[in-house]
Specification:
- By secondary structure, this protein is of the alpha/beta class.
- 40% of the residues lie in helices and 15% in strands.
- The strands form 2 sheets. It has a 6-stranded mixed beta sheet, with helices on both faces. A 4-stranded antiparallel beta sheet has the order 7-8-10-9, covered by helices on one side.
């Protein structure tokens, strides 16, 4: 993400004529884009920012997340909700001065911070329209949700928009060796190519030959074994099992996701969506109990506002069998039932 932010800034310096006043980035609350300072400053993860707030860059501004379950008003349709969020972005751009704003940054499908929250239909098209109106770049972070995880090579393909800059990571190397990348569209590339012809950025181990070789081989396997389609097909099976086995549980508030990237949010009261007190440690308790039964789910806290709320992520390997998907869901179901039975007693 550091590279993506710097790339956006350099794009406006390379334009003819240059636009050097653009230095502000807008992102969303309840988001996460990385642990280094600029990436953390553009993140809306309250707990991970807390110790470093005095170091946060003032030119990073934030608006509301797109989370229909939590933040769409009862009287709002999806269309009205999308319109409200798009107007909020435009108001923030205008308040900052559109000639000052570099880019809007968002996870296409929000990952660990809120638990696999996909965008409301039409959201990113509305956001793209606002960005284009004001000459603002669109940066999509697909470090978690990209590279096939959501059933398409890029999660933004489902949304009908193309970002100007995209980050990718976890699915790029499959965990075999550390590797991440930044993609840029022809517009951004063209500006740099016509200008200095280079990107003013570098890291000690960039383009490391072993990491690149591992990443290339992972992508070859994803293609040769048709794993993106498999994520889509097996993801439908996972989705059906999650709804069948968990949707009626009184403490499961919401099940959401795409492909093989699903989140289960826990609530104290389904009607009010009230979260549990953070001291209960619900998500971690479910995680630890499932782990005892040889199933790993990813626990998350702060789902609602960065402090309150619990969820777990279910994100199995792309080549998982249907039998193993069934085991994951049944173990998760049993762990949830046992944890909440113990709490109630």
């Amino acid at each position: 993400m550091e590279a993506a932010l710097k790339l956006a800034r350099q794009y406006f310096l390379e334009l003819q004529p240059p636009q050097p006043a653009r230095h502000i980035f807008i992102s969303r609350r309840q988001s996460y884009h990385g642990a280094t300072l600029a990436a953390l400053a553009v993140s809306g993860h309250t707990a991970r920012r807390a110790n470093f707030e005095p170091l946060m860059l003032p030119q990073m501004r934030q608006i509301s997340p797109c989370n229909s379950y939590r933040y769409r008003l009862s009287e709002e349709t999806d269309e009205l909700y999308v319109s409200r969020l798009a107007k909020e972005l435009e108001a923030e751009i205008v308040a900052a001065g559109s000639h000052h704003v570099c880019a809007f940054v968002a996870e296409t499908v929000v990952g660990a911070t809120t638990g696999c929250v996909p965008p409301v239909p039409g959201y990113f098209q509305a956001i793209r329209d606002v960005c284009d109106k004001h000459g603002v770049l669109l940066i999509l972070d697909e470090t978690m949700c990209g590279n096939g995880r959501c059933g398409l090579m890029h999660a933004w393909q489902r949304e009908g928009v193309v970002p100007d800059i995209q980050t990718m990571g976890k699915g790029l190397g499959g965990g075999y060796l550390p590797i991440a990348a930044v993609l840029l569209n022809a517009k951004v590339h063209g500006a740099l190519q016509a200008g200095t012809g280079s990107f003013a950025h570098g890291q000690t181990y960039q383009s490391h030959v072993l990491s690149c070789a591992a990443g290339l081989q992972v992508q070859r396997i994803i293609q040769s074994d048709n794993l993106v389609v498999r994520c889509q097909v097996t993801g439908k099976f996972l989705e059906a099992l999650l709804y069948t086995h968990l949707n009626e549980h009184p403490n499961v508030g919401n099940i959401r996701g795409q492909g093989l990237f699903w989140g289960v949010e826990f609530v104290k009261d389904r009607a009010t969506k009230e979260p549990f007190n953070v001291s209960k440690g619900i998500a971690n308790a479910v995680h630890l109990l499932a782990l005892e039964k040889d199933v790993a789910v990813y626990p998350g806290v702060g789902t609602v506002d960065g402090v309150h709320g619990d969820h777990v992520l279910v994100a199995p390997p792309y080549n998982i069998s249907r039998n193993d998907v069934e085991k994951i869901v049944l173990v998760l179901k049993g762990s949830i039932e046992e944890i909440f039975q113990n709490f109630s007693s």
